[in-house]
């Protein structure tokens, strides 16, 4: 068959995907509210390009194409656990493959704790659909009603005779069937795998060295690059002396490069060599003169001084407003007006940024720890002037991401260097590169005003002043408030407090910022939940009782009941400090209670953390507990140990010696409880973070009377 005779429809059939195995996927019509399940024959007949999600082989094995990244959050386990439940196969018979970047998979961004919450219904339905198709074929072969058959452990079994077919014996016929439109899903009470603490499929690979992370990827003829980048984002390369770098054994070339950081180009000098070591040594030998004129070289004290001045003088842009907080605050005799401050933070994943790119004539292929393969495709195709389908993005395991690896700068940089060299290139970032280049979680100041009357909160007015991550993405300021200004604040409060407003006071610097685990909820939560605690004191109310009073919905009440029960809140003793906070993040609500006391030397210590997670429908309780524990550890570091600071436009921290991480001895006992209900799934990987810091600082106030409004603080010097 000549090339011009091979349509997409014929290609699918010629390639053998139809007829020899059962391949099911989703089709996402632009006008449809939800995905349509389709098999290979259906896709070919409709001339639709379909990406496979599950592929059942003739040997009965199931290949799952995981469309999201695995960066420690557990999708490599949770998604197969969902598939295995409704498909009725053993987890050992599922092979997990990372899908390439392609819009046919829908949104592939691993962020916003969205992998399960946005996809679990489709995944359940897809798996059940495959099971029904296989049962239908088996029933037809036996000449019995499909209702007399059931599936178990990769087989279809006839209830009366106990005859059975292996799935592999049925796939050829099943592939010819249209996908049924309506299938009945299991009840929660019927689950055999879901909601069970099953061991993760990726743990053996990550402990025996067979897991492939970005740095493990190797290609024939691959060279290595290290880049000396301008330490001030908007600066340029004035000149460079590469004579010493070129004398380093293994260094092949040195040249100037530019990479796009959202809408701003960052300049640097690339050193390409035959090994990572040679590239890094060559980079150290470089002498670069930077041109840093034309933009402000800002310092940390100036940032917060300006923010506080703006909060005094500006009402800001309202995100939401109900009632008239100004009027109520003006009339009330019992008001509070305070400012909270949170620092810039680095993502600091244990695996620094890296990427492999191979530019070949009219196509580009990328491999690496990438959170957003579809975004990278869009970004690189535009920058490199290549058709989107010619940019192939492959995901490896990520050694942590926290939002940093949903960024497109490092794949772009690797692509530019590969095109220049004409060979595969692996770009390596050092820990110093990661710390000094950003992007960072923005530092923010909050002005919080409130009024209480007769023991009730009657008005809340919040203003947030800090960099808007969307401005970096879009390249321009907006006349609308940051859509995340109220993130973390529970919606039921709006029902019980009649006068509430949230506003953004816009603030810009040359510092690059972007999402950080739990995004703005990580900073909002500290300000808003700490302030509610202050209002509880003002009202003469127990802090948990005040929240119960204003969170009147059933789910919140049950959450508070559980928090009281597990923590022994009502039996608090003298010389113990208890603090509470409840935050919402990515459709999950987490309540935390922290207990503190002082040791025999008078030093503050955290005795216990209780976390209660309401994430609705969920998959694996062990993964939830691990994610909440990890979130609390990350929050502890950001609250009490590290921050990013600037002097003359330069980052002052460079590595873990001055951007320290929590050690095992810093971590208190953590107890995680999961609420059981029938609500839709919420997120898990991020919602455990925002509530910890305010619960901790509220506990410190309860014990010592010291109110902490500025982060980070030294736990040992309270």
Automatic annotation (TrEMBL):
Pfam families noted in UniProt: MoCoBD_1 (PF02738), MoCoBD_2 (PF20256)
All copies of domain Aldehyde oxidase/xanthine dehydrogenase a/b hammerhead, residue ranges: 208-294
InterPro entries given in the database record: Ald_Oxase/Xan_DH_a/b, AldOxase/xan_DH_MoCoBD1, AldOxase/xan_DH_MoCoBD2, AldOxase/xan_DH_Mopterin-bd_sf, N-heterocyclic_Hydroxylase, OxRdtase_Mopterin-bd_su_IorB, TAT_signal
Domain of life of the native organism: Bacteria
Example GO molecular function: oxidoreductase activity
SUPFAM superfamilies: Molybdenum cofactor-binding domain
Protein name: Isoquinoline 1-oxidoreductase beta subunit
Record organism: Pedobacter metabolipauper
């Amino acid at each position: 068959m000549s090339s011009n005779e091979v349509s997409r429809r014929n290609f699918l059939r010629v390639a053998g995907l139809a007829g020899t195995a059962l391949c099911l996927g989703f089709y996402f019509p632009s006008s449809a509210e939800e995905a349509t399940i389709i098999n290979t024959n259906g896709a070919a007949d409709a001339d639709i390009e379909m990406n496979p999600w599950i592929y059942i082989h003739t040997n009965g094995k199931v290949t799952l194409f995981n469309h999201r990244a695995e960066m420690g959050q557990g999708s490599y386990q949770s998604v197969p656990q969902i598939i295995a439940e409704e498909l009725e196969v053993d987890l050992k018979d599922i092979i997990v493959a990372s899908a390439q970047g392609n819009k046919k998979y829908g949104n592939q961004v691993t962020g916003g704790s969205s992998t399960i919450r946005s996809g679990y219904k489709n995944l359940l339905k897809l798996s059940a659909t495959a099971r029904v198709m296989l049962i239908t074929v088996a029933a037809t072969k036996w000449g019995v009603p499909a209702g007399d058959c059931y599936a178990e452990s990769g087989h279809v079994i006839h209830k009366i005779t106990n005859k059975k077919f292996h799935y592999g014996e049925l796939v050829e016929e099943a592939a010819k069937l249209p996908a049924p439109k309506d299938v009945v899903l299991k009840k929660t009470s019927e689950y055999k795998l879901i909601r069970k603490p099953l061991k993760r499929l990726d743990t053996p690979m990550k402990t025996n060295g067979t897991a492939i992370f970005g740095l493990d990827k190797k290609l024939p003829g691959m060279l290595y690059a290290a880049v000396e980048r301008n330490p001030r984002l908007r600066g340029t390369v004035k000149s460079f002396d590469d004579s010493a770098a070129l004398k380093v054994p293994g260094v092949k070339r040195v040249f100037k490069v530019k990479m796009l950081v959202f809408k701003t180009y960052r300049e640097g000098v690339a050193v390409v060599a035959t090994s990572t070591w040679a590239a890094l040594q060559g980079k150290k030998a470089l002498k670069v003169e930077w041109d840093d004129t034309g933009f402000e070289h800002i310092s940390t004290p100036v940032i917060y001084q300006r923010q506080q001045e703006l909060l005094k003088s500006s009402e800001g842009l309202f995100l939401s407003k109900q009632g008239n907080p100004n009027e109520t605050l003006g009339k009330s005799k019992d008001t509070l007006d305070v400012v909270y401050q949170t620092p810039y933070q680095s993502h600091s994943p244990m695996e620094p940024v890296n990427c492999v790119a191979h530019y070949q004539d009219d196509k580009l292929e990328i491999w690496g720890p990438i959170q957003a393969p579809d975004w990278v495709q869009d970004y690189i195709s535009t920058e490199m002037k290549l058709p989107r389908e010619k940019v192939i993005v492959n995901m490896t395991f990520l050694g942590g991401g926290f939002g940093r690896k949903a960024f497109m700068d490092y794949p772009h940089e690797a692509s530019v260097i590969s095109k220049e060299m004409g060979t595969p290139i692996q770009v390596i970032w050092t820990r110093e590169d990661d710390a000094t280049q950003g992007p960072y979680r923005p530092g923010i100041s909050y002005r919080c005003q409130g009024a209480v009357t007769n023991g009730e909160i009657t008005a809340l007015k919040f203003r947030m002043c800090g960099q808007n991550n969307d401005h970096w993405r879009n390249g321009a300021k907006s006349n609308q408030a940051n859509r995340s200004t109220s993130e973390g604040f529970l919606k039921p409060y709006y029902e019980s407090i009649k006068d509430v407003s949230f506003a953004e006071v816009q603030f810009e610097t040359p510092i690059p910022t972007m999402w950080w685990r739990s995004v703005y909820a990580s900073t909002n939560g500290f300000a808003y939940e700490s302030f509610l605690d202050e209002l509880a004191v003002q009202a003469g109310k127990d802090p948990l009782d005040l929240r119960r009073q204003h969170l009147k919905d059933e789910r919140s009440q049950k959450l508070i009941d559980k928090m009281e029960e597990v923590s022994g809140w009502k039996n608090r003793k003298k010389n113990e400090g208890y603090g509470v906070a409840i935050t919402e993040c990515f459709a999950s609500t987490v309540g935390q209670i922290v207990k503190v006391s002082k040791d025999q030397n008078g030093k503050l210590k955290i005795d216990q953390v209780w976390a209660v997670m309401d994430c609705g429908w969920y998959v694996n309780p062990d993964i939830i507990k691990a994610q909440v524990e990890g979130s609390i550890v990350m929050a502890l570091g950001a609250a009490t140990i590290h921050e990013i600071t600037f002097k003359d436009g330069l980052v002052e921290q460079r590595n873990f010696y001055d951007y320290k991480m929590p050690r095992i001895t810093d971590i208190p006992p953590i107890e995680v409880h999961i609420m059981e209900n029938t609500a839709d799934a919420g997120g898990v990987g991020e919602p455990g973070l925002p509530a910890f810091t305010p619960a901790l600082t509220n506990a410190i106030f309860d014990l010592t009377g010291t109110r902490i409004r500025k982060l980070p603080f030294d736990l040992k010097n309270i």
